[in-house]
């Protein structure tokens, strides 16, 4: 039998492209249905009328965090907005590291699928990628199988693909704000180092860790060099970088969308599933699906005014 925790306070953040009276009434009904006590005096409007809205609530609840998280996911799916619950144990002002997955998180593409298109095997590789990201296949095994299919690909296509990558909504705003606050940023990617370094230069990230394609005489060999960056390696990198920066894991945020991101999402102080696969949304501590990546800023208690004036 699950033991109920008495009277703990949590932070709920409601996010959407345009929050209406309908959404706030639905949230009021949600609070009432599950006997959640909303402390009205602590409600904060963090964003309004800027292409996205965000309002923060402090709520006292008897249910444990895991149940509240599941209830928030159900609300989000029904109302087509994001309702995110966080423990007040996470001190947003002490966040010192934010690490990102790359493919389908910072960018809109899965780079290995783009490489496969150039090799004429796009559909075959895309199917394997989707199953791996859903958690249906072992990442390392499926990754090696996909890379092997790229054997003989001319490296000239790398620059071509990089030039057509699309940065996901809100990524530039999020990273520039984090940089302005002196927060360390990193990519931990199961994709490829060439593209991670391209994004590092474009967005100004502090460091990147990804897989290195083996190239000989200007062609992909179908192999990768060094340790494959899978889910376990992402978690290791988060630990290693935290030690390097002399911070605790509770001072970190991780953002990703695939099953191979779950180890780092569970390890970080805040683990955000961004427009993620169903398994990842259900497993991560937090999930954002209806706003851009800069929605993470509101989970850090930043308001639009603070972001634009850099007075945080």
UniProtKB/TrEMBL annotation:
State the needed cofactors, names only. Mg(2+)
Tell me the keywords, alphabetical order.
Amino-acid biosynthesis, Hydrolase, Magnesium, Metal-binding, Serine biosynthesis
Q: Does the keyword Membrane apply?
A: no
What is the main EC category here? hydrolase
Instruction: State its Enzyme Commission number(s).
Output: 3.1.3.3
Pfam family of the protein (one): HAD
Database matches in SUPFAM superfamilies? HAD-like (SSF56784)
**UniProt pathway annotation:** Amino-acid biosynthesis; L-serine biosynthesis; L-serine from 3-phospho-D-glycerate: step 3/3
Q: Report if keyword Amino-acid biosynthesis is assigned.
A: yes
GO MF entry, a single one? L-phosphoserine phosphatase activity
**Do you know which InterPro entries this protein is assigned to?**
HAD-like_SerB, HAD-like_sf, HAD_sf, PSP
Catalytic activity annotation: O-phospho-L-serine + H2O = L-serine + phosphate; O-phospho-D-serine + H2O = D-serine + phosphate
Q: Name one GO biological process term.
A: L-serine biosynthetic process
Q: Name one GO cellular component term.
A: cytoplasm
Report the active site residues.
101 (nucleophile), 103 (proton donor)
Gene3D superfamilies per UniProt: HAD superfamily/HAD-like (3.40.50.1000)
Family of this protein? Belongs to the HAD-like hydrolase superfamily. SerB family.
Protein name as it appears in the record: Phosphoserine phosphatase
Q: Which organism is it from?
A: Acinetobacter nectaris CIP 110549
């Amino acid at each position: 039998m699950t033991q109920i925790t008495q009277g703990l306070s949590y932070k709920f953040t409601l996010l959407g492209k345009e929050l209406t009276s309908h959404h706030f009434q639905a949230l009021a009904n949600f609070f009432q249905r599950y006997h959640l006590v909303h402390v009205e005096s602590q409600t904060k409007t963090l964003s309004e009328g800027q292409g996205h809205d965000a309002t923060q609530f402090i709520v006292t609840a008897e249910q444990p965090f895991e149940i509240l998280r599941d209830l928030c996911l159900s609300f989000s799916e029904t109302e087509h907005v994001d309702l995110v619950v966080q423990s007040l144990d996470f001190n947003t002002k002490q966040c010192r590291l934010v690490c990102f997955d790359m493919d389908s998180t910072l960018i809109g593409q899965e780079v290995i699928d783009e490489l496969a298109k150039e090799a004429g095997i796009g559909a075959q590789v895309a199917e394997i990628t989707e199953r791996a990201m859903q958690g249906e296949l072992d990442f390392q095994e499926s990754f090696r199988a996909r890379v092997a299919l790229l054997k003989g690909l001319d490296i000239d296509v790398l620059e071509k693909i990089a030039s057509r990558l699309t940065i996901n909504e809100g990524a530039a705003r999020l990273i520039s704000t984090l940089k302005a606050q002196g927060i360390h940023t990193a990519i931990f990617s199961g994709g490829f180092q060439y593209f991670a370094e391209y994004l590092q230069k474009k967005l100004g990230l502090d460091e990147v860790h990804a897989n290195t394609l083996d190239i000989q005489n200007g062609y992909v060999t179908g192999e990768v060099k060094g340790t494959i960056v899978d889910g376990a390696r992402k978690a290791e990198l988060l630990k290693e970088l935290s030690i390097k920066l002399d911070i605790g894991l509770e001072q970190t945020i991780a953002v990703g969308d695939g099953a191979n991101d779950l180890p780092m999402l569970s390890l970080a102080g805040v683990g955000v599933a961004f427009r993620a696969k169903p398994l990842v949304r259900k497993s991560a501590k937090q999930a954002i699906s209806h706003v851009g990546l800069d929605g993470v800023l509101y989970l850090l208690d930043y308001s639009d005014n603070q972001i634009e004036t850099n007075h945080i």
